Task: inverse folding
């Protein structure tokens, strides 16, 4: 309908006062692409992510170690956050825009190739985001354990730059995980009426749902921030292991 | 042109106008089943001027103020209408409004809630109690949307973007309507046993107006041409608070809800002038009083830079304002560059509502033409000389329903076939196409602009004999020029052509407004004459009724219906019913909770 | 400030058309619709344009301004200082003429949605905080800009497979109403085609009423569809419960779990 019936339309878009429409998807391509390449390098070329009391989020929990081997040990873990992020409602927006041009920008014509291929909607597997969420929560528990460990040095409690990086990383990941749309549904979003069973009182379910809804507004910000924090945390520990830098003890 | 091949529809009940009153009438007419119902709108469905109603629907449900009752609502409405309303209309209205509002809730409207979980009601100008059931500042939209979705779930045939130019008669009875589809200009004929007129008002005759483009009074003008009686045409409401600056948005409505929620009016000297004009009700006085007060302040040199008053609600806090008045916040921010949570803003009166219209029976909405019923702003009787805010949304519900019932009864009682005159239709079709034969004729937009200029200057908030006489002369001249209006281009969605018929209707109604205003030699409600500044008891006994006649139009003086003693007793009380023991209750207290 | 604006407005119909240039004197605070009206009154009386309230309440004057779907009454011309302002009709829908698009498809979709069906009679007792969620959806002015920008409808012409964002919002409005008793989840999945939405959020970006269409309407509905159709564990428990003939003790309306 659109193509045939609309002569003379299809101008380039430049909404005034805003960034050009392509900035965002290009940023996604660069950031996401960079992270994936980095992850592949990390997963396939390293077998440990531990530096003294610091454990890289890529290698935690150390599932491979539980079975007594240390080949591609990150591979046993990274699929969880990968699945969680892949099925995340926010990341879907990003990768459908940036990588499959469905659409590249709002009101921007999709490439011809996209049009000739029938669009069938999004992948059904994404409906299982809630299970990825549960797995991500398990991983998150281990990450918090790592944070505690990162503050315990051989000579007792201490604070290093690495400890702070891991702490911030865990906080951001927690924010990302608990502002999830699927969790928001599970905790109360699927109810139509909160007050009906509670004689007009606010239920715990409502309060939780309300708080999560507030955090959910910033789900995209949590998503990016936690992606970069994981990246930085891993890179920091990798550089420590490689001896490129040295951890600074602050306390 | 061949009438056999013309698109023709036949209905038992046809509703003209797809705003709130029209949809409510159609829903009612169809709910009985067994009758075919059609509804025609000049715009798309759900776009009618009802969406512009912001503040709320007045109904004495008493959720917030338990002392409220239909008697108080009756008292307030009669008082505000300066007793030239039809008492029976008001009585029916006040009694039925609560049920109509609750019915909407049943159909899916979600009103704001009280802490107990019931429908919230807010304070409004001239209402003794907090009475307006509302949804933020978009109550009209909620009503319209609810009725719209109710209507499409029923067996009602909906015609969108159809202009009707003529009502067709079968002898003295209504037989149908004739017009064309705006999208492609092809003619369409509707035959019907009963017709509900719900075409709204004609606020577009003024320059500074809060009205949508549709408010051109088509229904009233067409009914008048077929002999319907129009009443109280001189009564036009100017809403006190329209936007002033920038000029692009001048006239745009600032809801009375701003004052209802605690907004204060100041003049340029930081004086809260409403304390002088109406110490009792202050900002929440009736619209005629507040509009006139602002007008006076400006005239006496205490106006704001762009000729208005300051309205300030910033003391209420940003959260509260964004929650209770989100539309206003956004409107002033994007269109006026003003953050109302931080600073006051300029307001000035803007044309808002036409109280006059087709004289309709209090209980059945029947007009003097058999088979023709009128409901909503096009009808007359409820509001008298000044409408209370919130009464129009309740009006369309109460009388939309009643018109639907009456139309159903009338259509059911009519067993014979409807006959339309082929000749009449052919003549009308020719008239509709006439403007195309004058591509270089008068520009309807230019005539409309001149009409608005004239009306605003001569028949605005303040009127006098000289102004009115000059105005009439100019309108009559414009009417002559309008006979030569032309249209360029084709019949496909051609606004220039559509405007011709709008302008014709507005010119006719403008003339009636002025003629009515000349007759009413007093000041009453929305009608203020500087040469007769007092409200006169003698004048208060009359309604002016306009009627077409072969020797030019006539104005009849008709006695305002006399109330039975029980209602008279209510109106003669010194304070509103339910207010008696109250030791000086601040109306506004708690409205903000 | 420049003293005039240059508008390039699409003139034509279904079959042919092109942009024509008009000059309009600048007035402070002027919006695009004012400029279009000026053109109508002075240069082109037959310029087709839909509008009603000029206050962003009715949602009639939707168009694409420099390629972005917007309301003409809410778009200030001073946002386009020094630029030619291109105004075109919504391109997802067939053109009637000039800036008028044939949006009738939307009204056909509206009819398919199961009407509001309360489980008890008004007056309802509902807390404000309980209806806050659905009240957001009631802000919709049916301007159909979201329908216009949605790539499923715009680029893939999947009108037969997806109701579009507007009607996801409408269904959310009914579905999440505290006292509504109807079940629209099957309709959402099948006829409504909620799976066609890939949450790219352009609908939310263009919404003049700032409704969080994706986050608050579509995604929660997607989750409800997942609850019903894609969650094996919930399915299993539902079957178990059914077999035991026990009514679900969850606080949702049983038919909806």
Result:
């Amino acid at each position: 309908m659109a193509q045939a019936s609309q002569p003379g339309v299809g101008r380039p878009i430049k909404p005034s006062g805003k960034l050009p429409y392509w900035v965002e998807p290009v940023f996604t391509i660069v950031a996401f692409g960079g992270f994936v390449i980095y992850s592949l390098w990390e997963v396939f070329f390293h077998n440990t992510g531990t530096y003294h009391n610091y454990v890289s989020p890529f290698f935690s929990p150390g599932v491979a170690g539980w079975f007594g081997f240390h080949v591609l040990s990150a591979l046993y873990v990274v699929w969880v956050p990968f699945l969680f992020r892949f099925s995340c409602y926010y990341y879907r927006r990003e990768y459908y825009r940036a990588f499959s041009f469905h659409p590249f920008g709002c009101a921007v014509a999709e490439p011809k190739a996209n049009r000739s291929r029938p669009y069938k909607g999004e992948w059904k597997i994404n409906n299982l985001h809630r299970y990825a969420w549960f797995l991500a929560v398990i991983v998150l528990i281990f990450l918090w354990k790592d944070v505690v460990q990162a503050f315990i040095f051989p000579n007792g409690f201490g604070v290093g730059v690495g400890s702070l990086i891991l702490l911030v990383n865990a906080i951001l990941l927690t924010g990302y995980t608990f502002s999830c749309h699927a969790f928001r549904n599970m905790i109360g979003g699927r109810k139509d009426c909160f007050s009906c069973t509670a004689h007009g009182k606010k239920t715990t379910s409502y309060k939780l749902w309300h708080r999560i809804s507030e955090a959910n507004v910033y789900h995209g910000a949590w998503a990016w921030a936690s992606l970069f924090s994981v990246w930085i945390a891993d890179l920091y520990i990798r550089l420590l292991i490689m001896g490129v830098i040295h951890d600074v003890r602050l306390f | 042109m061949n009438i056999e091949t013309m698109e023709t529809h036949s209905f038992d009940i046809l509703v003209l106008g797809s705003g709130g009153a029209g949809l409510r009438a159609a829903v009612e007419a169809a709910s009985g089943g067994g009758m075919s119902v059609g509804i025609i709108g000049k715009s798309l469905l759900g776009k009618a001027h009802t969406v512009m109603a912001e503040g709320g629907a007045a109904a004495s449900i008493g959720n917030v103020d338990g002392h409220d009752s239909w008697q108080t609502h009756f008292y307030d409405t009669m008082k505000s209408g300066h007793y030239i309303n039809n008492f029976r209309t008001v009585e029916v209205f006040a009694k039925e409004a609560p049920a109509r509002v609750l019915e909407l809730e049943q159909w899916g409207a979600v009103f704001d809630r009280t802490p107990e979980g019931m429908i919230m009601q807010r304070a409004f100008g001239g209402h003794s109690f907090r009475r307006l059931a509302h949804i933020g500042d978009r109550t009209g939209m909620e009503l319209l949307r609810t009725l719209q979705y109710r209507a499409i779930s029923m067996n009602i045939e909906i015609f969108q973007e159809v202009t009707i130019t003529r009502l067709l008669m079968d002898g003295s009875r209504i037989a149908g309507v004739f017009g064309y589809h705006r999208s492609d200009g092809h003619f369409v004929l509707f035959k019907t046993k009963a017709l509900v007129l719900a075409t709204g008002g004609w606020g577009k005759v003024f320059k500074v107006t809060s009205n949508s483009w549709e408010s051109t009074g088509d229904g009233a003008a067409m009914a008048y041409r077929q002999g319907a009686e129009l009443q109280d045409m001189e009564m036009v409401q100017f809403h006190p608070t329209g936007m002033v600056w920038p000029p692009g948005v001048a006239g745009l409505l600032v809801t009375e809800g701003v004052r209802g929620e605690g907004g204060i009016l100041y003049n340029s000297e930081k004086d809260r002038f409403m304390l002088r004009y109406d110490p009792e009700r202050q900002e929440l006085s009736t619209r005629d009083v507040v509009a006139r007060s602002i007008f006076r302040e400006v005239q006496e040199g205490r106006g704001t830079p762009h000729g208005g008053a300051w309205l300030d609600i910033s003391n209420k806090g940003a959260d509260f304002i964004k929650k209770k008045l989100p539309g206003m916040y956004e409107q002033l921010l994007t269109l006026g560059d003003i953050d109302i949570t931080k600073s006051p803003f300029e307001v000035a009166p803007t044309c808002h509502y036409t109280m006059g219209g087709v004289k309709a029976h209090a209980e059945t909405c029947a007009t003097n033409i058999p088979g023709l019923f009128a409901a909503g702003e096009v009808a007359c009787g409820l509001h008298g000389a000044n409408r209370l805010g919130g009464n129009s949304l309740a009006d369309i519900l109460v009388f939309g329903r009643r018109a639907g019932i009456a139309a159903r009864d009338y259509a059911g009682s009519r067993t014979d076939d409807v006959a339309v005159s082929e000749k009449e239709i052919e003549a009308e079709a020719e008239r509709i196409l006439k403007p195309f034969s004058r591509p270089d004729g008068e520009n309807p937009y230019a005539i409309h602009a001149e009409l608005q200029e004239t009306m605003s200057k001569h028949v605005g908030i303040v009127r006098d004999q000289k102004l009115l006489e000059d105005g009439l002369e100019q309108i009559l001249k414009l009417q002559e020029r309008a006979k030569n209006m032309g249209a360029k281009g084709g019949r496909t969605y051609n606004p220039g052509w559509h405007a011709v018929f709008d302008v014709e209707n507005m010119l006719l109604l403008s003339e009636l407004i002025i003629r009515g205003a000349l007759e009413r030699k007093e000041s009453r409600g929305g009608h203020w004459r500087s040469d007769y500044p007092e409200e006169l008891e003698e004048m208060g006994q009359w309604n002016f009724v306009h009627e077409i006649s072969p020797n030019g139009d006539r104005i009849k003086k008709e006695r305002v219906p006399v109330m039975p003693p029980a209602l008279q007793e209510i109106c003669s009380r010194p304070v509103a019913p339910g207010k008696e023991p109250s030791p000086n209750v601040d109306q506004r207290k708690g409205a903000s909770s | 400030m420049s003293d005039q604006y240059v508008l390039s407005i699409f003139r034509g119909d279904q079959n042919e058309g092109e942009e024509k240039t008009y000059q309009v004197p600048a007035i402070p605070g002027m919006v695009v619709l004012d400029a279009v009206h000026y053109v109508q009154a002075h240069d082109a009386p037959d310029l087709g344009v839909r509008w009603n309230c000029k206050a962003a309440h009715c949602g009639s004057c939707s168009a694409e301004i420099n390629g972005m779907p917007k309301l003409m009454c809410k778009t200030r011309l001073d946002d386009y200082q020094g630029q030619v302002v291109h105004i075109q009709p919504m391109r997802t829908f067939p053109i009637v003429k000039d800036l008028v698009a044939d949006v009738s498809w939307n009204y056909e979709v509206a009819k398919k949605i199961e009407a509001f069906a309360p489980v008890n009679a008004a007056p309802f007792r509902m807390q404000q905080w309980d209806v806050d969620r659905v009240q957001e959806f009631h802000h919709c002015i049916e301007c159909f800009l979201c329908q216009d920008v949605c790539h499923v409808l715009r680029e893939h012409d999947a009108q037969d497979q997806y109701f579009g964002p507007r009607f996801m919002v409408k269904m959310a409005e009914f579905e999440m109403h505290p006292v509504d008793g109807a079940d629209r989840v099957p309709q959402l999945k099948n006829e409504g085609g909620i799976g066609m939405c890939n949450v790219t959020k352009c609908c939310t970006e263009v919404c003049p009423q700032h409704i969080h269409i994706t986050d608050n309407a579509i995604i929660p509905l997607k989750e409800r569809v997942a609850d019903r159709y894609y969650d094996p564990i919930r399915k299993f428990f539902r079957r178990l419960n059914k077999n035991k003939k026990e009514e679900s003790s969850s606080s949702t309306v049983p038919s909806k779990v």
Notes: Confidence is low (pLDDT under 50) at residues 585-593 of chain B. The longest helix of chain B spans residues 495-519. The CA atoms of residues 147 and 404 of chain B lie 14 Å apart. The interface with chain A takes residues 116-117 of chain B (CB under 8 Å).
